[in-house]
Structure formats: C-alpha cells, structure tokens
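Title: Comparing notes on inverse folding

I've been comparing how different people in this forum approach sequence design from structure. To keep things fair, I'm posting one structure and asking everyone to reply with a full sequence. Here's the target:
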C-alpha cells in the first residue's frame, strides 16, 4: 500500500495545484467585486485607506482561497479515480480497493497499476485551467474601476484638505517642540511644562480634525493655567504668612506701584528677611524662586525690581508655564484657516492679531443701534468636549444696514453691549476677561 501511496503522490500534488488555481480564480473574482464596492464607497464618504483595503482584498482573498484549496486533504481513492479518468482504465482505483489482499490476482493487479502510474505524467495530462467566467468577471471589475477615474470624486477635495490639515498640525507640533526646547532650563517648572508640551505635540500629530486639535490645545492651556494659578496662590499665602499682608493685598488688587512704595518704606534688610521667610514657606518651587529673587533684589536695595518680581509671582507669570504661553509654544494661532489651527496667546491676551493694524482698513464700522432685526448673537462654549453652549444676545437693531459710523464712535457702544451680554450670560471669568481685553486693545 505504501508503494501505491508513493505512486499516487504526483497525482495528488497536481490535483492540489489545479484546485488552488481554480479556487484562487474564484477568490480573485470575489476580491475584484470587493474592490468595485470599495471604489463606489469612496464616492460616498471620505475613504483615505480605500486602496490599502483594495490591495488587502485582492491579495488576501485570492491567496486565502488558493492556500485553502492546496491544503485541503486528498484521499487516495480520489487521486486514483482522477488518474483512471485520464487513461488508466480503473487500474488505480481497483488497486486501492484491493489494498490488504495478498492473493495472486490482487498482487498482479497492483503491479499493473503501479507500472501504469509510473508511466503516467500528471503535468501533461492535468492542465491548469480556471473557469472562464471567473476571468471574465475579474476583467469586467477592472474595467469598472478604470472607468471610475473618469468621474470626478467629490471626496478627493476633502481628502486633500485633511492631508493639508495634518501637514499643518505637524508644523504646529514642530513649533510646540521648538518652544519646549527654548524654555528656560533654570525654571523649576520647566520639566513639567516640557512634558505637557510634549503631550500636546503628540496629540496634534494624531489629530484627525479641528476638534481633536482644539481639544488637545484646550487641555494643555488649562493645565498651564492651573500651574500659573498654583504659583500665584502659593505666593499669596507665603507673603501673608511672612507678615507682608499689605504687599500681598496691593498685588492682588493689581496695584504694583503701591506694593513698590510699601517696600521702599520698609527697611531693606527687614524686607529682604521677610521675603526670604516667605520663600521658605512657599510650597510651589516657582513661587519660592520668585520670592527668593525678590529678597535678593531688596538686599541690593532695588525695591522696584523686587516689586516686579512679586507682581509676576502673584499673577503666575514668573514660571515656565507663563513662558510657554507667552512664546506661543503651547497654543498656536489661526493662520488664515478659519480657526482650524491652534491659537497662540501671549500672556493673558487671548488674541494674537494686532487690532491697530486693521484700523486703516476699516475706517468705518456698523453701529449696532443702526442695524435692523434682532441684533447679533454670540455663542460662548464651555470646556471643549463638554457639549454646553450659552447664547448671549448683543443688542437690538434699529434703522437700516446702510448706515456706518466712524470707528471710534461706535467702539464704546460695542464694548458696553458686549460686556453686558457676557455678564448677563454668566460666562466664565476668563471669557469675560477676553472681551474686556479685546476692546481695550482696540482703543
């Protein structure tokens, strides 16, 4: 029986090859139909990886079908019947059926079958052919895909914009990384700020749309702001704990001149000692550094410098977090993209443009009291991703849209109505400050 198995092995290999060829052809037809479907889907939605999936379908389905066919087991009787159908006249299958019999007739029959199998040439007798319909179907699908390129795809423009967006985000991420490297290494908060900026850079590179990018920017901005607030609060507590309540109160009210005058009225050595004590009490490293530098300035008799250092600490503007926000490393700008790019504030300012540059271009603007209808509506969103939106109504219109007034004449009324609107809408403090800062910068 072993001799019969060895004799049938070439037939089995040829059967596997032929079956793999046929099944692979059917797999190619299914793959071609999938490619046509993917191409049609690419006209309905943005499908950037369509060709990757098409290649996967073409190679995967065709190869999988061929491999399954080649690996499928073949029985000895099946191989024998196939050989007999090609000219062995039932010799092979009879020999397989008589396996185990040792009669002279069975031995003679097996010997005749083995001799016939040795003379049998499977490669010549068993040609590799695929069903004709499979190749016709594959060619038809290929023609359909080729013709689809003659039809403009509305998704191509969207894909191009997304690719441009990713390139812009990569450029923004590069700016963030450069800003992180440019941070003052002597600042205590620099390692933490660099970590935050590194996370922002990675998030920008992973962003798929504007929302992703703005969420990343918003998270970083809030963390940096939290660090500044922590520094300011700790500096305040340290000054109060060191008996410098009057200076802390003046700085809290934004009156740096009063704080300087108070320091000048004090004995320089006593003030320096008090500030050193405050630096030791401070738990925040940035606040402690600023207070220590202020103490050194008072030791040198420079009350003005000491007041400036204290004012920076009390406003949270003395650390690496403030440095990152000031240089725009963490929060880019909208460079003509309609706000799709990250924004770049400097210090407490939330806008990056210079309003004074626009006054020459817009000599006159519309007065809100001259406009018809119900006025303007401003939407102020809360934290990105929270889904809360507050609407504030800015003024009611009167008259027609034809009238315009000089820039300076309408500005106060715009400012008053905008400030009242955000106050009535109970917007966050930082949002109200944006409005105030914006109109102050226009004066």
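Reply #1:
Here's my take.
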């Amino acid at each position: 029986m072993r001799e019969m198995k060895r004799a049938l092995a070439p037939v089995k290999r040829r059967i596997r090859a032929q079956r793999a060829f046929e099944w692979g052809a059917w797999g190619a037809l299914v793959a071609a139909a999938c490619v046509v479907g993917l191409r049609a889907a690419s006209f309905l939605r943005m499908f950037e990886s369509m060709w990757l999936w098409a290649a996967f379908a073409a190679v995967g389905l065709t190869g999988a079908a061929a491999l399954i066919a080649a690996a499928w087991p073949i029985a000895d009787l099946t191989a024998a019947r196939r050989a007999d159908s090609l000219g062995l006249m039932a010799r092979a299958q009879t020999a397989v059926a008589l396996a185990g019999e040792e009669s002279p007739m069975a031995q003679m029959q097996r010997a005749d079958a083995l001799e016939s199998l040795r003379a049998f040439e499977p490669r010549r007798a068993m040609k590799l052919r695929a069903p004709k319909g499979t190749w016709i179907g594959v060619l038809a699908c290929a023609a359909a895909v080729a013709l689809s390129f003659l039809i403009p795809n509305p998704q191509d423009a969207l894909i191009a914009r997304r690719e441009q967006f990713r390139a812009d985000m990569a450029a923004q991420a590069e700016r963030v990384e450069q800003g992180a490297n440019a941070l003052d290494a002597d600042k205590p908060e620099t390692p933490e700020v660099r970590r935050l900026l590194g996370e922002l850079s990675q998030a920008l590179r992973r962003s798929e749309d504007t929302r992703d990018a703005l969420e990343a920017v918003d998270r970083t901005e809030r963390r940096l702001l939290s660090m500044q607030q922590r520094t300011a609060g700790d500096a305040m507590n340290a000054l109060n704990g060191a008996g410098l309540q009057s200076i802390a109160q003046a700085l809290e009210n934004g009156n740096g001149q009063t704080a300087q005058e108070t320091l000048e009225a004090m004995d320089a050595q006593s003030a320096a000692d008090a500030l050193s004590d405050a630096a030791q009490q401070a738990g925040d490293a940035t606040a402690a550094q600023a207070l220590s530098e202020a103490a050194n300035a008072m030791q040198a008799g420079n009350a003005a410098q000491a007041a400036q250092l204290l004012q920076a600490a009390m406003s949270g503007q003395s650390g690496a977090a403030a440095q990152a926000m000031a240089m725009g490393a963490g929060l880019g700008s909208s460079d003509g993209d309609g706000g799709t790019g990250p924004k770049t504030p400097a210090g407490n300012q939330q806008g990056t443009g210079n309003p004074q540059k626009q006054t020459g271009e817009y000599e006159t603007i519309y007065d809100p009291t001259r406009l018809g209808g119900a006025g303007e509506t401003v939407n102020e969103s809360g934290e990105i991703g929270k889904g809360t939106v507050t609407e504030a109504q800015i003024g009611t219109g009167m008259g027609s849209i034809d009238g315009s007034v000089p820039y300076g004449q309408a500005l106060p009324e715009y400012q008053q109505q905008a400030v009242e609107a955000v106050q009535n809408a109970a917007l966050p403090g930082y949002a109200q400050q944006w409005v105030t800062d914006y109109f102050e910068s226009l004066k």
